[in-house]
Amino acid sequence: MAVALAIINVMWLESNYAFGQRNEKQTRERFENASRKEEADREG
Question: pLDDT of 3-25, one tens digit each?
């Protein structure tokens, strides 16, 4: 089940790139910001 959901997620993300609704830079920045926030929350 998890593999099927992961494949659907990848297909959705790729379709957003293909049709210009999202770009790699924007996606990378969101993940990096979320990672920084998570680390800051863990540190206290």
Answer: 999 999 999 989 988 898 888 89
Token duo for residue 12? 């959705």
What's the whole-model pTM score?
0.54
R_g of the chain, CA atoms, integer Å: 14
d(CA 14, CA 20): 10
Instruction: State the virtual CA torsion across 5, 15, 28, 42 in degrees, nearest 10.
Output: -20
> Two tokens at 33?
């910001």
**Would you say residue 2 has pLDDT above 90?**
yes
16 touches 10 (CB < 8 A): no
Amino acid present at 44: G
